[in-house]
Design brief:
This protein is of the alpha/beta class.
Length: about 250
């Protein structure tokens, strides 16, 4: 079946479902990647699109991101949508979502990891360390790190973080987070708890890199799964860029 035919089938199925739940990654998926994360702003077109989707009958929208909740909330907090921040650690539900709640409560000492990352940032100008509430991110999009340097850094981080942490690679970012945390936590928290096979909620989930795999892998069997840019394994739908995904989402309205 051609790509156009698969997109058409997905569109028809999502439109026909009594209810829809959309899990959307932010950076690289809804917006283009930027030199610095703070430059990847939610433009007026995206704001209008997400608001219209959330107001569409039977539709819930959840933006699932690795960003800290202050950052994600600052971008999209005024919208009537669900927000999942820090790779699933925090959730603001799409219904009655005035406040955030923690989906995990890890006790993790990352002081040794901070020291390694800050040393790496000093050695590689342009790299920087982002301290979130319960995890860390090392951004190196604007730095000169070759594959060997990145390999050594990952090894050092895994040793320092120990068995209670996960070192996760994204696009020009390395995240260090508590073990067991992942974007799948948002999917699990909002799925139908009875997991009935005849559940009338059609699920659509989309991301752009390996940090989104846990979200896509946690989706129910009949969900429509998609990637933007990077062709992740076993995904049915593919969009060349965020603009293409937005065009598809507009057709759901």
């Amino acid at each position: 079946m051609s790509g156009d035919a698969v997109l058409r089938d997905a569109l028809l199925a999502l439109r026909a479902a009594p209810r829809r739940r959309l899990f959307l990654d932010y950076d690289g998926t809804l917006v283009d990647l930027a030199a610095q994360p703070e430059l990847a702003l939610a433009d007026a077109d995206l704001i209008d699109l997400l608001r219209a989707l959330a107001r569409s009958p039977g539709t819930e929208v959840v933006v699932v991101s690795g960003r800290a909740r202050a950052s994600l909330g600052g971008l999209l907090g005024a919208l009537p949508i669900g927000l999942s921040a820090e790779h699933g650690l925090w959730l603001r539900p799409p219904v009655g979502g005035a406040s955030w709640r923690a989906l995990a409560d890890p006790a993790l000492d990352l002081r040794a990891v901070v020291a390694i990352l800050e040393h790496a940032a000093r050695r590689h100008p342009g790299a920087r360390v982002e301290r979130k509430e319960r995890s860390l991110a090392f951004h190196y999009r604007n730095a000169d790190l070759d594959d060997d340097a990145l390999r050594r850094l990952r090894v050092s981080l895994r040793v320092a973080a120990g068995p209670d942490a996960t070192v996760l690679d994204g696009k020009c970012v390395i995240d260090v987070m508590p073990r067991g945390v992942g974007k799948r936590l948002a999917m699990a928290a909002l799925q139908n708890p009875t997991n009935r096979p005849n559940d009338d909620v059609a699920v659509f989930a989309v991301g752009d890199d390996t940090t989104d795999l846990s979200l896509l892998d946690a989706a129910p069997p009949k969900a429509w799964l998609a990637t933007v840019g990077t062709a992740l394994p076993r995904r049915t739908l593919w969009f060349a860029a965020p603009a293409n995904l937005r065009a598809f989402l507009r057709q759901l309205l």
